[in-house]
Amino acid sequence: MSNAIQERPVTVTPRRSLSHARLPRWTPAAVAVFSIAAGCGIGLAAGWHSKVQWGLIAALVFVLATYVLTTKVEGSRQAKDRVATSLVWVCFVLAVVPLLSLAWVTISKGMEVLDGYFLTHSMNGVLDAEAGGGVYHALLGTIEQVGIATLIAAPIGLLTAVYLVEYGGGKLAQAVTFFVDVMTGIPSIVAGLFILATWNLMLGFGPSGFAGAMALAILMMPVVVRSTEEMLKLVPNELREASLALGVPKWRTILKVVLPTAIGGITTGVMLAVARITGETAPVLLLVFGTKLINPNPFEGAQSSLPLYVYEQYAVGTDAAVARAWGAALVLIAFVMILNLVARGIARWKAPKTGR
Question: How many other C-beta atoms can be found within 10 angstroms of the C-beta atom of residue 342?
Fold first, then answer.
């Protein structure tokens, strides 16, 4: 009996690396620079004078170059991932560039007339075609009108949202939700006509800042309701149940647990509504009329506002009037920005503390 062992050929499987070829980290930046150069070159060669066309061509080249280069080096699966990321960045840039351009133009043109005199004087005794005058009367009118509208709309919108989330059910809640959705799409001129027909024509009141504030409150309420409703829905039910399990009444649970938890989002929604109404011109033009004089009483007599002031000055068309319009636009943007910062500070101060 043979003890010889038959030897079989051993096949060695080549070791496969778990790591694949990858592009360097600087590749997206290099592709972006190449795409910008390509977009500018194609735009110049085609004789296009619009920088928007150059930017769109550069964005298209960026996406295509990213896909081709990634497919060749990393494979098609990774290329699809990079193309999705590239599309996100392109959309972000397309959204930010107009915003930065608008901010730059407004600041550069508005700073030409923005000073202490411009903020503390009105247009009383100043012709629209002449240089001089200020925006104080319009700024005062905007502060009063927006403040009154917020005092009317914010509590009503907040309580309506609390009802829909915490108590709502049945046909009444469905009807309220339906009318809130309808009010969201109401044009501002329709709100102004409603107040004009009821407050001015039926009840006999004259033009005033309060009439304009009521129209602005109508535009503000659905935004407050919708944003507050979504924020309240994000509050975990466990917090409500824990409070109720301790014997806390439901109204106190809402006041001490639910609202403080959602105060940041609620404040953001209110500020979005304020920003929505601050730039409205139609209700103010219809109900407040506008004036060159300083009227600190919002309940009697015509008032002005910053959007109406911008419209009136730009309609004049002279260099001095257009400069005042840009200055008022800058003041309007600064006004909304300051309100947002103050509201966020209050929301952070009142928000429940986290951690130990």
Answer: 12
